[in-house]
Amino acid sequence: MTTPPAPATPVPLKIDFVSDVSCPWCAIGLHALEQALDRLDGTVAAQLHFQPFELNPQMAPEGQDIAEHLAEKYGATPEQSQRNREAIAERGAALGFTFDMGQRSRIYNTFDAHRLLHWAGEAGGEAAQTALKHALFKAYFTDGQSPGDHGVLVRAAAGAGLDADRAQAVLASGEYADAVREREAFYQQHGIHSVPAVIVNDRHLIQGGQPPEVFEQALRQIAAGQ
Q1: Which end of the chain has fewer CB atoms < 10 Å from its terminal CB, N or C?
Q2: Contacts of 28 (CB under 8 A, 6+ apart)
Q3: 126, 43 contact by CB (below 8 A)
Q4: Which residues lie across from 44 on neighbouring strands?
Q5: Cα→Cα distances 95→66, 79, 150, 209, Å
Q6: Cβ pair 24, 90 in contact under 8 A
Q7: Within a 13 Å sphere around the CA of 15, how many CA atoms are in the beta-carbon half?
């Protein structure tokens, strides 16, 4: 396939990254997308927005044992789950992200994490929201911490350069709950039922945790067609 020539000026692209912070393929997809965007520096000027999706919206606050959850939801045997974990860890390592599967033993409710991400986008823009997203992926997948725990969320926000007191106030209230639910409903109504889903300029869909090369080629083609 011929690579489209680079434009004279970077082509603006609006990218909505629909994902959950407890989704390992979302962590893989984000790192791969960012590597693709690095390769496209000077070709595209991307504006990245993180949109909410809950894999387990009915999950209780205390969470559920991960092996039990995968068996119930997907019918996965322990052997299948182990092979999947190994494949995920290998993909992550190739992208520079560490999945410490020994640390992660439970699945948790992520609604409050999405509320905090929504606030981060409003309070600090793309950079702050991206930093918080990375901090939340690391907290869960590398450190084995609960993305439903307010202390974990506040520390992640502070580490992302956001105001810890304001983050605590957001979590202690119902702020942004309606906004998050509206966004979740919007994407489900538009056919997004698995994540990650990368939506470019509100009309091009790249589905799944693709390799950087796939994201790069797709974004080049989209930019060339603007």
Answers
A1: N
A2: 88, 91, 92, 95, 97, 209
A3: no
A4: 11, 41
A5: 24, 25, 29, 11
A6: no
A7: 28
Structure tokens at 179: 């906004």
Buried b (16+ CB within 10 A) or exposed e, 118-156: bbbbebbeeebbbbbbbbbbbbbbbeebbbbbeebbbbb
Res. 158: pLDDT tops 80? yes
Cβ neighbors of 141 (< 8 A, separation 6 or more) are 24, 27, 92, 97, 98, 99, 100, 104
Q: Copy the structure tokens of residue 98.
A: 């560490």
Strand 197-200 versus strand 106-107 pairing type: unpaired
Pull the structure tokens for residue 157.
Answer: 């926000």
Alpha-carbon gap, residue 23 to 192, rounded angstroms = 15
- Alpha carbons within 13 angstroms on the beta-carbon side of residue 10 total 14
The string of DSSP codes covering 190-208 is TT--SS-EEEETTTEEEES
How far apart are alpha carbons 138 and 143 in whole angstroms?
6
pTM score, two decimals? 0.94
Taking only the tens place, the pLDDT of each residue in 2-55 is 565 656 799 999 999 999 999 999 999 999 999 999 999 999 999 999 999 999
Phi, psi dihedrals of residue 14, rounded to the nearest 5°: -95, 120
Neighbouring C-beta atoms of residue 49, cutoff 10 Å: 16
